[in-house]
Every structure is written in structure tokens, then in C-alpha cells.
Design a protein that fits this description.
The chain is of the alpha+beta class. About 30% of the residues lie in helices and about 40% in strands.
């Protein structure tokens, strides 16, 4: 096998790897958007307080934030009670994946 053939094979395999990574990303995004008992996806406009000197229109005040939510159960070491904690993670801002 020549050096050029090896480079061509490396390039072809790197292209396959990047295609697989892209496919995995898309599948992961689809799994985030599914809602069930374990986790759910929400999108809400989050508004932040506006400074009094700001003169931008109201429709520019907030950002559309997409979050994945889930409940995590933790056992308290002292009492032995099970505590449920609501967790969330931001996935999209204004429709753009982060």
C-alpha cells in the first residue's frame, strides 16, 4: 500500500466518523425533545428586568429558552427519607442548540 492510498483511506474513514458523530448528535437532540416520565422538554420565554434607560421594544425583552427537566431522587443520609429534587439543563436559546 502506498502512502497516498493510506492517506486516502484515512480521509475516507475520517469522513465516516464525522458523519456518525453528526447522526449521533441528531439522535441525541431527538431524544431530548421526547417527553415521558423520566424527563421532559419545555420552552419558555424568560424575561429579565430591563434597565430604566433602555429603550428597546418589549418583544426584544426575553429569550426563548428550551430546557430539559427531570426529577432526581436522593436518599437523605441522616433521616433515610427519599428527597425528590427537580433538575433542569438549558439546551436551546432562541431555537439554537448550545
Amino acid at each position: 500500500m502506498t502512502r497516498a492510498e493510506i492517506r486516502a483511506e484515512i480521509k475516507a474513514k475520517n469522513a465516516k466518523i464525522s458523519e456518525l458523530i453528526h447522526d449521533i448528535d441528531n439522535l441525541q437532540k431527538q431524544s431530548y425533545l421526547l417527553s415521558d416520565e423520566e424527563q421532559w422538554f419545555t420552552e419558555e420565554i424568560e424575561k429579565h428586568p430591563k434597565a430604566p434607560y433602555q429603550r428597546k421594544p418589549n418583544y426584544l425583552d426575553g429569550k426563548l429558552v428550551g430546557r430539559i427537566n427531570w426529577n432526581e431522587k436522593i436518599k437523605d443520609e441522616d433521616t433515610g427519607d427519599e428527597i425528590t429534587i427537580h433538575r433542569s439543563n438549558i439546551l436551546r436559546i432562541n431555537g439554537e442548540w448550545i
